UniProtKB/TrEMBL annotation:
The active site is at C90, H209, E211. GO terms for biological process: pyridoxal phosphate biosynthetic process; pyridoxine metabolic process. NCBIfam families: PLP_synth_Pdx2. GO terms for molecular function: glutaminase activity; lyase activity. Pfam families: SNO (PF01174). Its EC number is 3.5.1.2. Keywords: Glutamine amidotransferase, Hydrolase, Lyase. The keyword Lyase applies. It catalyses: L-glutamine + H2O = L-glutamate + NH4(+). This is glutaminase.
Amino acid sequence: MLAKRAESRKVVGILALQGAFVEHQAALEKLAFQYRLEVILVKTPEELARCDALVIPGGESTTIALLARLSGVLDPLREFVRTKPVWGTCAGAILLSQAVENAKKGGQELLGGMSITTARNGWGSQVESFEAALTVDGLQSPDVPFTGVFIRAPVVVKLHPAPEDPPILVVARLSPHLLPPSLASPHHSDEPKIFVALRQGKHFLTTFHPELTDDNRFHEYFIRECVFSQCR
Ligand SMILES: NC(=O)CC[C@H](N)C(=O)O
């Protein structure tokens, strides 16, 4: 019986090369009992091989990619993204993109996985960080707004799924009228810039940092919708 239980556990890894991985670990640990998760930090190809799903934290996308290459985990990550669920937050969202604008000199290695283009630091230099209340239908207690913490956040520039790709679902949008005045520009509700959480098949991205609040509803969403449901 015990062996069976252990078998049915899902191993959820958090890429732990740089950035806010400890905060993701704490948020996922709170769900470990309910969903029978084993939460591990991933720095090596061997640790990655144990995972059923992976979270790539916020931090600095260029640094994460560089450290991934140096530690031999970059190509295994690319392989992982092809078949298993991955959630990228902020810098992790950049890494999950197929293309990126505003990359640092020397370029930016990506993992791909989601058929979108993002732009690094897409809110411009006038504001590096802001918070915005998000109302998200797919979360538990959807009437309770979620505080989105945006720190030098990327923006989604374009969605370009190929016909054979899974469709892209907009999970959360910014309400332009709730943005700080310094950011208020003539956004409209279909401008990709306001898409701040997207799902495509098994993959999920948030341009903000759900792990920096005590609210772990986005973690629960990822586990429920991407790790356990049969999305393709
Ligand atoms: N908070 C973050 O993850 C910032 C992302 C950072 N601007 C990058 O390009 O990687």
